[in-house]
Amino acid sequence: MNPQLEGIEDLAGTYVFDLRTSHRALKLNRFLWRMIGADAREDFLADEEAAMKKAGLSETEMALVFARDWLGLIKHGASFFVMEKFARVARQTNLEVYAIMRGETFDEFMATRRVPECR
Q1: 43 burial type by CB count under 10 A (0-12 exposed, 13-18 middle, 19+ buried)
Q2: DSSP letter string over 19-52?
Q3: The domain spanning residue 29 has which CATH number?
Q4: Does residue 108 carry a pLDDT above 90?
Q5: Local confidence band at 119 (pLDDT 50, 70, 90 cut-offs)
Q6: Are 94 and 102 in contact (CB under 8 A)?
């Protein structure tokens, strides 16, 4: 184990994104990254399942994407930076994704911010 990660399992809500995770979830992360392109977005919106199969996603990965399971995607190995691209396609903001990942409604999440009235 990487000595820098020693004890990481004791930090609740921390999910390691290292080379091993990156390699395991490579197809998923490439799929999510491609959402920066209009063609990829259009293909996905026209037929989600076909787009994911074309990208070679596993059944587990496809289920996570279908469900818009943001926390599940992170735990599986999605990079948050490419997941943001997909959130736009799913018509959700970062703040909405953060709320879902915390198990809160958007309003509950915003009430925890220093400027809850900002949207």
Answers
A1: middle
A2: HHHHHHTHHHHHHHHGGGSHHHHHHHHH-HHHHH
A3: 1.10.700.10
A4: yes
A5: low
A6: no
Euclidean distance between the first and the last CA atom of the chain, given in angstroms as a whole number: 41
The domain tally of the chain equals 1
Per-residue pLDDT tens over the stretch 41-94: 999 999 999 999 999 999 999 999 999 999 999 999 999 899 999 999 999 999
Which residue reads 């190995």 in tokens? 77
| Cβ neighbours around 69 below 10 Å, total | 16
Q: Flag whether 5 is in a domain.
A: no
User: Does 72 map to a domain?
Assistant: yes
The span from the CA of 22 to the CA of 78, in Å, is 8
Residue 6 maps to a domain: no
Mean per-residue pLDDT over the chain, rounded: 90
